[in-house]
Amino acid sequence: MSEQHKDGKMALTGIRIVDFGAGGIDPITTSTLADFGAEVIKVESYTKLDFMRTGEFFAGEARDPDHNFGFSRYNQNKFGALINLKHPKGVALAKKLVSVSDVVIQNFRVDVIRRLGLAYEQLQEVKPDIIYLNSSFGGQTGPYRGFGGQGFIMAALAGLDDVTGWPDRGPVSPGTAFADHYLPFLWATVILAALEFRRRTGKGQFVDASSFEACLDVLDTAILDYNVNQHVQTRRGNHHQAAAPHGVYRCQGEERWCAIAVFTDAEWQSFSRVIGNPDWTKQARFATLLGRVEHADELDRLVESWTSGQIVEDVVLKLQAAGVAAGVVKNVKDSYVDPQLAHREHYWKPEQPGWESFTFEAPSARLSKTPPRFMRPAPLLGEHNDYVFFDLLKMSPEEYTQLVDEKVIY
Amino acid sequence: MNKAGNMHSALTPYRVLDLVDESGDFCTKVLAALGADVIKIEPPGGHPTRRIGPFYHNEVDPEKSLHWFNYNLNKRSITLNIESASGQELFKRLVKKTDFLVECFRPGYLDKLGLGYSSLSAINPRLVHTAITPFGSTGPFSQFKGSDLISMAEGGLMFLVGDDDRPPVQITTPVPSIQTALEAVAATLVAHWYREQSGEGQFVDVSAQESVMAQTLPQTMFWKTHGLLASRGNLGPRTPGRPTGLGIFECQDGGLVICASTILRGRQPLREWLASEGMAGELLDPKWDGVFLKGATVTKEQKEYIDSLFRAFALKHTSRDLMYQAQKRDIQVVKIQNVPDVIVDPHLKARDYFVKVEHPELGDTITYAGAPFKSDVMPWQYWRRAPFIGEHNEEIYGELGLNKQELSALKEGGII
Hints:
The structure holds two protein chains of two kinds. Helix content of chain A is 36%, strand content 12%. By secondary structure, chain A is α/β, with parallel strands linked by helices. Chain A has two domains: 4-217 and 347-405, 3-Layer(aba) Sandwich (Rossmann fold), CATH 3.40.50.10540; 246-336, 2-Layer Sandwich (formyl-coa transferase, domain 3). In chain A, the strands form three sheets. A six-stranded parallel beta sheet of chain A has the order 3-2-1-4-5-6, sandwiched between helices. Chain B is an alpha/beta fold. Chain B folds into two domains: 15-214 and 353-412, Rossmann fold, CATH 3.40.50; 256-335, no CATH class. Chain B is 36% helix and 13% strand. Chain B has 17 helices and twelve strands. Chain B has helices at residues 25-33, 66-71, 85-96, 109-112, 117-123, 148-154, 175-198, 208-213, 217-226, 267-276, 289-293, 300-314, 319-328, 339-343, 346-350, 393-399, 404-412, and strands at residues 15-19, 37-42, 76-79, 100-103, 128-133, 202-207, 247-250, 256-259, 333-335, 355-359, 364-368, 374-375. At the A-B interface, helix 2, helix 6, helix 7, strand 6 and helix 8 of A face helix 2, helix 6, helix 7, strand 6 and helix 8 of B.
């Protein structure tokens, strides 16, 4: 029985993933699978810590790499073992671990992995049907092969910054590190598809996972629109081609904003009723969708004259009660007191010492029979060495001690 | 390979009943690209998403929506009025023979029709039923209306996006829907894996609000570890007292690049690069060694100075050249591409990224965005243009045993 199984019935019990990744995309990919019960073994070494361990989100005053919230959140529910890949015996040990696993994920710089001896073909020798996801900036071929960059960079290259912002201003970066928080769900999908493919065909595979290409789906119809109509889609503030008012409106207080989206004529009439049918709502130019879209700027000013004196939560409740789509532009603090998120138990509360005042987030999917579960924050360095080396790899205590002395298990 | 030219892939043996709208379109698109037999169920007269523009050659026509084209590749279409008793009976027969059902209805709607998960799982216990909704299937906001704008706001992402002197701003493309739909695919395949082990299907409940929240994790961390509340800026979220390491710079060709000008990695290479063209200003003075060689924190004034040098430097290079040269030196620089730039991107061309799909009825071949990954054995492929309204009625209802006479009666009755 695997270690993970002791925690109860979970969907992905029995799948073992060796995670050589660091940073955001790869670790979050495997932690997403760990949330549903996959046994993810994070391979680390004192010779090469995941840089998130020493990033700026230390959970306490001490700069303790075992107590970093950023690392812990991106690696929740995993197991951890120390293998020094700079030592030849470390590479052999890693291969041994791969030989009893289903999936390998890594985001080493292109070529580094082959020099190490952990490339796909090299691992196929020990595990012919291994599923191997090689995540990189631009993939294994092409002019951008070997490029590097964090999540925000991929979004800019993929055109997402250009479609974010105001038409009279320059592009805007859409969030912190867009790719870091989008691609994990794609790579998790690809790993699950590859597992299903192997289940039926017996075949493993190499997946060339290029972050740049994978971000392009978020351009929606922009690529088609250009190819077919030579029309360039770009940023347009908060407006929408088929809705008005459609935007974000100032409410009472500092940085309190309400998002409102009125699509149909019926919604417009409901909206007008909620705001007390002031005279301006009766103007003929606002009566139809096309008229409202054409006069969207003016409409925005009039709508804001109604919202600006009110409390944002009240505006949202009134509009939603009348069947108009509206929402609070929430900040982190708002989310923590959001009743819907509380209902869905979005925030997981760890019991592990040192983590009592933190929360870890659930994925957005609730599965009725095998829900995602929080079992533990990220592993401490080498926390599960015993499990990995003794239980999985059947190492003798003598061999273990020797490898520790030689800084292979390090 | 079948006669349509699609190769065996991960989901080839499986069938999906597709009842999604634009908030779930990407979910069933992915399932179809991975080989599943996706049957789009449209109300008689056509699905409302056929009204979403833009349109082929700007001709407003339910058979020419580019939104429809983009999200319904490979799929088959039937028409069916699930609000009628006869339609419900047919629907249940389809459910018996399906593996997945994906829908985006308001919570409770299918239950009222007698087609909720409890009824459908009684007919087909192996069914994986995935519901994608703005706020989730239950809870105080579950009946609230949503849209991309609302999800981006309620999920906490919008607060972090935009220029600081204007209101928070949306991403113009429907990123919240795409992100949510993608998380729904992953969860659906998790449920599939469990079904293949246990024989049991289940209900998968996905909330757009919660999916969008994944984009806000770093800001949640700043709040939990430092008590700092991030706000928006054109270079991404701004955290008080934490100057961003990034900058946007105009180049000789008028193009823009984003450059991680002062993040730790690449800092010294940037100094050397500026110096190699005699544009390093006073940066070679040893008083800067702390910043460049010892990783000292960069002050606001120091960053402004470094950026002023790089601003002048960038204007002497084209945006693409600047990106290549920087990347060779391990400095994080990319061109901020717009859609036309993406379409002629040399890397995408070299990797054969774009895919041509034939539209014989239009006498045209259209180029689509391609596969997001490459695998030698498990293809992500588009082998058939999006279907016309009810294009596969005869084929699919025929499989259920309905003959032509029955089909025409159902058509007259407004059922299909």
